[in-house]
Amino acid sequence: MKKIISMILVGGKGTRLGDMTKGKAKPAISFGGKYRLIDFTLSNLSHSHIDVCGLVTQYEPMDLMNYIGNGSSWDLDYTDGGIRFLTPYLKKDAIEWQKGTGHAVKQFFDFIDHYQSQYVLILPGDHIYKMDYNKMIQAIDEDQSDILVASTRLNQSDLYRFGIVETDPSGHLLSFTEKPNHPSSNLVSMGIYIFKTEVLKSLLFSEKDLLDFGSDIIPEAIHQNYKILSYEFKGYWRDVGTLESLYEANMDMLNDEHFLGLNSSKNLPIFSRSLNLDPHIVLNDGLVQSSVIADACLINGHVIHSTLAYQVHMKKNSLVKDCVILSGVEIGYKAHIEKAIINEGVKIPDHYHSINEHCILITEDNLFKVGEIRE
């Protein structure tokens, strides 16, 4: 019997990220040049010594599964436990697709039952943060709560995308409202939960159709008078569910050389899988300022305050500024791009210009809708 096991929800389509999630699950998206979003959750699990992880997949899982492999890059390749991919399968002559975050976990409750753990840790796979989950486990243990909800405080302008948490003076939940029009608090749910296993099972298999943790399960648990503790997290955290939030998180990294300690091997380092590529090369006409360049990039232009993922090639006299460039992009001679995310594999033609006031996504399909050729 284990103290706790984890379930990571990686099956969402990520529609607000547009073409970036065409052909891959959102947690497989690049961040900061050399990372993927899933790296943060897997690294947190590794440092917290939680050695059973069920990854609940659905939408376009192949790229993510290939990247994670057996989990050895995060020291999660255990024989008894480790990473297990939980994919939709045939039940009673039909495949039942996931209808919500809670429903996704319910489909694989036999996986949870197998380990007979005291607690189940529910995690999103697409957030940027560093957390020692043991502190939450200690908090729910000491408080003897049934459920723990990880929460954090945000600016008023960001509240509309999240579930709002209200607590009493002792930190126990009084209410939980998913994405209200008029938030009553700036304390939001991070989508991270710890449940006593028997409590989670009772809620998921009740007569009510509880499909989603935020919309259904937590409000119902409050209604049933379960003891629910809010664990307030005060470190850096971003849910990068939109183009703007993903872009801003990349800019946050560039603006802070100590961002999440990514350049340090101490204090919960974030691991990623090495692709065993050649180092990047900056040629004679290349210039790099305040940027992050991943392996196998060939730079003969100017890179200013930008992140470049693997195998980006820039021709002479090209310039990118305040950009997030995904892998396999080619940028042509005298191209000039500012404030954009450039999708994987896009080929930017010579003399192309796209200079923007706000972040945009450049894809093969919209290339000439958001920019033009200037000879």
From TrEMBL:
SUPFAM superfamilies: Nucleotide-diphospho-sugar transferases, Trimeric LpxA-like enzymes. This is NTP transferase domain-containing protein. The keyword Metal-binding does not apply. Belongs to the bacterial/plant glucose-1-phosphate adenylyltransferase family. It holds the Pfam family Hexapep_GlmU. Keywords: ATP-binding, Carbohydrate metabolism, Glycogen biosynthesis, Glycogen metabolism, Nucleotide-binding, Nucleotidyltransferase, Transferase. Transmembrane segments: none annotated. Residues 6-254 form the Nucleotidyl transferase domain. GO terms for molecular function: ATP binding; glucose-1-phosphate adenylyltransferase activity. The keyword Transport does not apply. GO terms for biological process: glycogen biosynthetic process. CDD domains: ADP_Glucose_PP. It comes from Hujiaoplasma nucleasis. PANTHER family: GLUCOSE-1-PHOSPHATE ADENYLYLTRANSFERASE, GLUCOSE-1-PHOSPHATE ADENYLYLTRANSFERASE-RELATED. Residues 285-352 form the Glucose-1-phosphate adenylyltransferase/Bifunctional protein GlmU-like C-terminal hexapeptide domain.
